[in-house]
Specification:
The chain is α+β, with helices and mostly antiparallel strands. It has two domains: about 120 residues, no CATH class; about 140 residues, no CATH class. The protein has a four-stranded antiparallel sheet with strand order 6-7-8-9. The chain has a three-stranded antiparallel sheet with strand order 1-4-5. A hairpin with a 2-residue loop joins β4 and β5.
Length: about 260
Amino acid sequence: MFKKGKGFTLIELLAVIVIIAIIFTITFPVLKNIISNARYGAFESSKKGIERTAQLYYTLNMDEVILKNGVGHVEIGTLKEEGLLDTKIINALDNLEIGDDVKVLIYKQGEVVKYSLQMYNDGFFEWYRTKMINAVKKDENNLPDNVGEIKTVELSMLMDSELVSELRLPIDLGSRCEGFVKVEKVNENEYDYEAYVDCLTEASSFVSHYVSYGGKYLDEFLDVKETSDGGYIAVGKSNSETITKYGIGNNGNYDAIIVK
């Protein structure tokens, strides 16, 4: 005769459910971080590959790619037509195909030609924001002390850092602009930032741009546009309420900083 096994009581079942919930709560952020890192790694590898392809294209077609004031671009569709890229490229951040109209910015920093894939969807911004936060945290101890908890670094120093090269500034700020970035640590995961830039325009008058933004929302540059005076601006997204003179507005979400 088999002895009838004893089943779980309601209290025991609830205890098991609570334990499983606790384990899930602890492990889920870790698993999510692992998945995110895997996606980020795949995207970064693809991004670098596309930029190297743009470099090859520029080397082969240097006479056709015009770098007006040091800035030019090539579209993904053109790289495909030249047989340099596959006909279908998947963005690992959202598993969607990268469109043919997506551009790779070709620009000069001094005498060095650089390349930067321009993508502006939510997945890209989340990846970019994570990279920027980690970069600023890593550089935090290298910033010179200022008043209290605020540390200041010259804008050009921060922009020239290899860790924040994704800012996509096509021209060195040093010759045209004076500025600074203030970084204030709010807590372990959040920082407040302020950026201020004075730029000399072709009309020999100074135009000041002040942008403050905080929390996890760092500078996210969307595009580089030419101004009426022949300069260039980097149009970016922040949580600032200010819409600058040369910016484009969307309920105060977009600002611009002259980069020439």
